[in-house]
Design goal:
The protein is α/β, with parallel strands linked by helices and about 325 residues long. Helices cover about 40% and strands about 20% of the residues. It is built from 10 helices and 12 strands. The protein has a 5-stranded mixed beta sheet, with helices on both faces. Helix 7 runs parallel beside helix 8. It is globular and about 60 Å long. The chain starts with a strand and ends in a 27-residue tail after the last helix. The model has no long low-confidence stretch (mean pLDDT about 95). Bound molecules: adenosine monophosphate (AMP) and magnesium ion. The site of adenosine monophosphate has 18 residues, from helix 4 and helix 5.
C-alpha cells in the first residue's frame, strides 16, 4: 500500500491531493480569482503561500490519512509560472525534510493525461485544452508526443483575454459559455464568420483574438453572438486537429482534459466527432479537469512505484518551461 501526497501550484490553483493505490482520498484546492483583469504571477504566488497550510490540513482531514502514512510527496515541477512553482516546491521540500520522505517531480501536462486513466481510457489521444497549454498529446515510443499545439496562446488564456477585453474577470471561460448560450436569444444562434487558423496540425489564436476585439469595438456585434461564434470556430479547430491525430496514430480513444474541457459545447463537439469515427470518448470529472493536486498525486504514485523519485533535495528544481515531450517516460 502506498500513500502519495501531490501538490499543484503551476498557475492560479494551489491544490493538494492524496492518492492511495490509485484511489483519490482527497482533492482540495484554493483558486486565485480576480474581479477584473488576469493573473498577476506574484499575486497568485502570494495566494498560494497564504492558502497552503489550510489546504494541507484540509487534505489530511478529508482523507483521514495521518502524516506518518505518507510515503512520498509529489509536486508539479513544470511547466508553469516561476513564482507559483516556487511556492509548490518549497512546500514539497519542507514537508519531505520534516517527514523524511522522498519527493517525486511530476510534469503537470502529463499528469493531466495520466489521471485520465481513472475514466478507463487506456491509450488515448488527449485533447489538452487549458489556460496556458493547448496540445494534442499521445504516447508513442517512450514519450508523450505532441501531435499538434497552439503556436501562440493557450485556448483558455485566449478566451480569458477576450473576456477581459469585454470587462469580465478571471476566469472568463465559464461566463463566455453562459453568454454563448444566449446568442441571439434562442435556438437560432447567430454565427459570425471569424478567421479559421489551422496550420498543419497546429492552431493559431492571436489573429482571431484581434479580430474579435475589433468586432466588439465596432459596436456592430453583440457579445453573446461573438462568444457563440468564438466557441464554434475555435472548438472546431481543436476537434479537427484531434481527429487528425486519431486518424494518424490509429488510436481509438479520445480523452479531454484541461480547464476549457469543462465547456459543455466542446464536450458535445468531441462526442459527435468520436461517434462519427467509431472512437470512444472519455472526459474525467470536473474536479480532475481543472488544475488539481489529485492528478499530481496520481502520477506521483505511478512514478514512485517504479522508483522514479529524488532523495537529494538540493538537486531538484522547478522547470518552468518543461515540455510534455521533454520527459522520458520510464514508468510505462
Ligand atoms: P486550467 O489552466 O487547466 O486550470 O484551466 C483554466 C482555464 O479554463 C481558464 O482559462 C478558464 O477560463 C477555462 N475554463 C474554465 N471553465 C470553462 C468553460 N466552461 N468554458 C471555457 N473555458 C473554461
Ligand atoms: Mg493545467
Amino acid at each position: 500500500m502506498t500513500t502519495i501526497l501531490g501538490i499543484e501550484s503551476t498557475a492560479h490553483t494551489f491544490g493538494i491531493g492524496i492518492v492511495r493505490n490509485r484511489k483519490i482520498l482527497a482533492n482540495v484546492k484554493s483558486t486565485y480569482v480576480t474581479e477584473k483583469g488576469g493573473i498577476i504571477p506574484m499575486e497568485a504566488a502570494k495566494h498560494h503561500s497564504e492558502s497552503k497550510e489550510k489546504i494541507y490540513s484540509q487534505a489530511l482531514e478529508v482523507s483521514g490519512v495521518s502524516e506518518e502514512e505518507i510515503d512520498a510527496i509529489a509536486f508539479s515541477q513544470g511547466p508553469g509560472l516561476s513564482p507559483c512553482l516556487l511556492e509548490g516546491i518549497k512546500f514539497a521540500k519542507d514537508l519531505a525534510e520534516r517527514l523524511r520522505k522522498p519527493i517525486v517531480p511530476v510534469n503537470h501536462c502529463i499528469a493531466h493525461v495520466e489521471v485520465g486513466r481513472i475514466t478507463g481510457a487506456k491509450d488515448p489521444v488527449m485533447l489538452y485544452a487549458s489556460g496556458a497549454n493547448t496540445q494534442i498529446i499521445a504516447y508513442a515510443s517512450g514519450k508523450f508526443r505532441i501531435f499538434g499545439e497552439t503556436l501562440d496562446l493557450g485556448v483558455g488564456n485566449f478566451i480569458d483575454n477576450f473576456a477581459r477585453y469585454a470587462g469580465i474577470g478571471f476566469p472568463g471561460g465559464p461566463e463566455i459559455e453562459k453568454l454563448a448560450k444566449k446568442s441571439s436569444g434562442g435556438p437560432e444562434k447567430k454565427l459570425i464568420e471569424l478567421p479559421y487558423t489551422v496550420k498543419g496540425m497546429d492552431i493559431a489564436l492571436s489573429g482571431i483574438l484581434t479580430n474579435l476585439k475589433q468586432k466588439l469595438e465596432s459596436g456592430k456585434y453583440g457579445i453573446q453572438d461573438l462568444a457563440y461564434s468564438m466557441q464554434e470556430t475555435v472548438f472546431a479547430m481543436l476537434v479537427e486537429t484531434a481527429e487528425r491525430a486519431l486518424a494518424h496514430t490509429g488510436k481509438k480513444e479520445l480523452l479531454l482534459g484541461g480547464g476549457v474541457a469543462c465547456n459543455s459545447r466542446l464536450q458535445e463537439m468531441c462526442k459527435i466527432m468520436c461517434k462519427e469515427r467509431g472512437a470512444k470518448f472519455f472526459c474525467p470529472d470536473r474536479l480532475l479537469l481543472v488544475d488539481n493536486g489529485a492528478m499530481i498525486a496520481f502520477l506521483g504514485e505511478i512514478m514512485f512505484k517504479k522508483k522514479i523519485y529524488g532523495e537529494n533535495l538540493d538537486k531538484i528544481d522547478i522547470k518552468p518551461k518543461q515540455r510534455t515531450d521533454d520527459v522520458n517516460v520510464r514508468w510505462k
